[in-house]
């Protein structure tokens, strides 16, 4: 059966049919198309899902093609990021049901729109009828549009993030040593460890996502001792050959997490001309990610009286990328001070 349009309108989720979004290609805002149809007898006609899916968003001033040129839309909602800026959220109203009501209220098609263009855009809608002709919202019968404003994205650098640290925890670990006198074993628990956590957070909009790269994901990278408790490591060095400094970068989010970080290391030293073995159980339980909406890194210092740690190692490409609640992003490099006693953060454009 043939059908035709009796009502066609496009709206935003705000009361003034205007909305704004960051032009980062990630943030989305909803555009809602309302439609009523009638059959050949002018009775209400319920459009099929296929009919509704044929609705397209268009440039209001160029109705011959679907929305493009830096603007795109999809039915899929990206739930990681907000779809309303604070200034516009106050104007939001309750959206109509996506189902057609018994009283003949419009059927609804909702799209999520994103852009990479810093500009104002008037957006309409169109649908192809059963006879192959198009009906759009820039006509004498149906005239409506929404205005979306693409805003300049925020780019995160050291100028608009906060880097802070805290002296998080300290303690001692088990150290076994062999006597040069008779090669008997002794144990002490006096060797110290110290943890300092670093946090990178936004001074503009809160971070909701981050990825890391350039680190040892398993603890078994070539160049340093193999131990799964070194997972997350990006630098391993004992600057004075005795006191070990470890730099870690942690997976984003998840709240406060306990990690067993460090390693078990055996070594041999020469004491009074005698080869004596050493065993360091240097893997304390530490807490990370205590601050929400922040990237967490750790410097773990492990004191030792002997030279047992081996060669230094680092991944100089370590870094992370952050996204705020609206999809704005920034890239950063993670490093360490010359003495490996501090984590360093730099913008990485």
Automatic annotation (TrEMBL):
State the superkingdom: Eukaryota
Protein name according to UniProt: Uncharacterized protein
Q: Which organism is it from?
A: Xylaria flabelliformis
User: Lineage, please?
Assistant: Eukaryota, Fungi, Dikarya, Ascomycota, Pezizomycotina
């Amino acid at each position: 059966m043939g059908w035709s349009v009796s009502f066609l309108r496009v709206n935003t989720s705000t009361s003034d049919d205007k909305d704004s979004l960051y032009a980062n290609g990630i943030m989305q805002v909803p555009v809602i198309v309302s439609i009523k149809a009638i059959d050949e007898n002018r009775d209400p006609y319920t459009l099929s899902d296929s009919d509704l899916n044929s609705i397209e968003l268009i440039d209001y001033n160029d109705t011959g093609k679907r929305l493009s040129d830096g603007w795109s839309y999809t039915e899929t909602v990206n739930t990681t990021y907000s779809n309303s800026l604070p200034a516009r959220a106050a104007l939001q109203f309750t959206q109509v049901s996506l189902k057609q009501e018994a009283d003949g209220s419009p059927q609804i098609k909702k799209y999520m729109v994103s852009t990479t263009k810093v500009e104002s855009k008037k957006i309409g809608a169109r649908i192809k009828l059963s006879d192959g002709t198009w009906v759009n919202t820039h006509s004498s019968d149906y005239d409506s549009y929404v205005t979306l404003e693409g805003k300049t994205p925020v780019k995160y650098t050291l100028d608009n993030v906060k880097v802070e640290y805290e002296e998080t925890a300290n303690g001692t670990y088990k150290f076994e040593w062999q006597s040069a006198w008779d090669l008997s074993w002794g144990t002490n628990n006096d060797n110290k460890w110290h943890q300092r956590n670093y946090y990178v957070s936004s001074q503009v909009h809160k971070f909701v996502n981050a990825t890391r790269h350039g680190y040892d994901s398993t603890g078994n990278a070539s160049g340093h001792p193999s131990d799964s408790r070194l997972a997350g490591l990006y630098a391993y060095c004992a600057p004075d050959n005795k006191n070990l400094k470890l730099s870690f970068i942690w997976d984003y989010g998840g709240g406060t997490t306990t990690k067993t970080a460090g390693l078990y290391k055996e070594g041999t030293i020469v004491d009074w001309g005698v080869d004596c073995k050493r065993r360091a159980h240097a893997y304390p339980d530490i807490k990370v990610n205590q601050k929400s909406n922040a990237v967490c890194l750790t410097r773990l210092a492990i004191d030792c009286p002997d030279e047992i740690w081996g060669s230094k190692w680092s991944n100089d490409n370590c870094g992370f990328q952050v996204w705020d609640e609206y999809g704005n992003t920034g890239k950063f490099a993670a490093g360490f001070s010359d003495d490996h006693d501090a984590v360093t953060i730099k913008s990485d454009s």
